[in-house]
Design a protein that fits this description.
Its main location: membrane. It holds the Pfam family DUF6691. One of its GO terms (cellular component) is plasma membrane. It is found in: Cell inner membrane. By secondary structure, this protein is an all-alpha fold. The chain has one domain (5-268, 276-338). It contains 14 helices and no strands. Helix 1 packs antiparallel against helix 9 (196-212) and helix 3 packs across helix 13. The chain is globular, with a radius of gyration of 19 Å.
Length: 341
């Protein structure tokens, strides 16, 4: 898969802004698996549904503005190449593992590692290790032991966007950040439309995933192909620089105050440091499912939103919608089962 350092770095900035803004304003961690589980099976809070709406709305915004043409990767094409059985199995493992292990790539890696949380550090190491092994042992290719259609492998190339595309991305990042700040001030001054900042936070995260290419499972699997350097795509590593590192700097500034900016919210950052069997087993299960197809909860919601828009606007055969519904249904089933533990 083509290496996209500029696009991924800029997309990582949006992931940083969305997660750090949510933390500073609400004291909450942007963990997509926990948000989905809480919205569907838990307390059903409005802020959770606001973020989910934002995640789903990202592709619609991109299509309406024409930004879709600038994004690297093709998530719908990649998903359409994967068999329903593999999607269902991966979804169940991702849902079950992310909840048993108390987080996924967003909550543990993007947010937890930036706080130097011992639990998140162990969880991230665990699910990356099992994901790499899963991608190696059960590859999406002609030699796949699960005998599903293949996501084609791409030789390593470097993809550099035009100056126009870079300018568009930077303008979009600045515009979304300014819009979030303005809406947050408005909500604080009027005590109305309290769901708006959460929706915009989810929207920024969704666009960040698309801009970075991390919504495309083929691109994620390219990073997990550590055993085949000719097809290795290091793009995901740029998220550690523009997302995790900047989140860490931001958290270092906030942790001394430990107070949410929104008066109706309170500081809810986890403080647990214990590492138990549930964390290890859950993270390992999540990693296996993630390594099978390269999809985790956040990109799954973005792909669902993109597939719906694609089906509404483009004529012809569309195989991705059924596939992503299969994954999401199995993921929710896995989350429900994890509650038994």
């Amino acid at each position: 898969m083509p290496f996209t350092p500029i696009q991924t770095f800029l997309g990582g900035l949006l992931l940083h802004f969305s997660t750090s803004s949510l933390l500073e304003d609400t004291g909450r961690v942007f963990g997509v698996s926990g948000i989905v589980d809480g919205a569907v099976f838990g307390s059903h809070e409005r802020w959770q549904w606001g973020i989910i709406v934002g995640l789903l709305a990202g592709p619609a915004f991109s299509y309406a503005t024409g930004l879709q043409a600038y994004y690297p990767g093709n998530a719908l094409h990649s998903i359409a190449q994967i068999g329903l059985g593999r999607l269902g199995l991966a979804g169940a493992l991702v849902g079950f593992g992310s909840r048993l292990g108390s987080g996924c790539t967003s909550g543990h890696m993007l947010c937890g590692v930036s706080r130097l949380s011992p639990r998140s550090l162990i969880a991230t190491i665990t699910f990356f290790a099992t994901a790499v092994l899963s991608a190696k042992l059960f590859p999406l290719g002609p030699s796949s032991n699960l005998s599903d259609p293949a996501i084609p492998a791409y030789a390593y190339t470097l993809d550099q966007p035009s100056f126009a595309a870079i300018a568009v991305f930077i303008g979009l990042i600045a515009g979304l950040k300014i819009a979030y700040a303005a809406l947050s001030r408005y909500v604080l001054s009027t005590a109305s439309f309290r769901s708006t900042p959460y929706v915009l936070s989810g929207l920024m995260f969704s666009i960040g995933l698309s801009m970075s290419g991390m919504s495309d499972p083929a691109k994620v699997l390219g990073f997990l192909r550590l055993f085949d350097l000719t097809q290795f795509d290091p793009s995901l590593a740029l998220i550690m620089l523009s997302g995790v590192l900047l989140n860490g700097i931001h958290y270092a500034r906030l942790k001394h105050t430990a107070k949410a900016r929104f008066p109706w919210e309170s500081w809810r950052v986890p403080t647990r440091k214990d590492v138990g069997s549930k964390l290890i087993l859950g993270s390992a299960a999540f990693g296996v499912g993630w390594g099978l197809i390269g999809i985790c909860p956040g990109p799954a919601l973005v792909a669902f939103g993109e597939s719906v828009i694609h089906n509404l606007t483009v004529t012809g055969k569309h195989d991705s919608l059924l596939g992503i519904i299969t994954f999401l249904g199995a993921m929710l089933g896995g989350m429900r089962i994890s509650r038994l533990f």
